[in-house]
Amino acid sequence: MALLIQDKKDTGIKFPIDQQRIRIGRGADNDICINDELVSKDHAVIEVVLRSKETAVVDYLLQDLDSTNHTFVNDSQIKLHKLSNGDVIRIGVNNFRFIDEDSGSLDETSKLYRTWIPGVFYTGDKKK
Question: Which of 28, 88, 101, 102 has a C-alpha 20 to 30 A away from that of 110?
Answer without folding.
Answer: 88
